[in-house]
Write a structure and sequence with these properties.
75 residues, four-stranded antiparallel β-sheet, WD40_repeat_dom_sf, repeat, Swd2/WDR82
């Protein structure tokens, strides 16, 4: 599918993620497409269940964390 302006305008928001309280700097899907992970300038990493649209795991470290690139590795 070519992402033309008309195609992009036809997209609808399926889910708004509000768990990160600062700018999200990385957002990626797992290899099987069932999970989404985000990292944010609020030092959190959040995993979401794509099938249900629910929060999976939220990690708030006690120290500073900066993740600008996330990678999913096959098992």
């Amino acid at each position: 599918m070519k992402l033309t302006d008309n195609v992009l305008r036809s997209f609808r928001v399926a889910k708004v993620f509000r768990e990160n309280s600062d700018k999200i700097n990385c957002f990626d899907f797992s290899p099987n497409g069932e999970t989404v992970i985000s990292s944010s300038d609020d030092d959190s990493i959040v995993l979401y269940d794509c099938q249900e649209g629910n929060l999976g795991i939220e990690s708030q470290p006690s120290g500073s964390l900066r993740a600008y690139r996330l990678a999913s590795l096959p098992r």
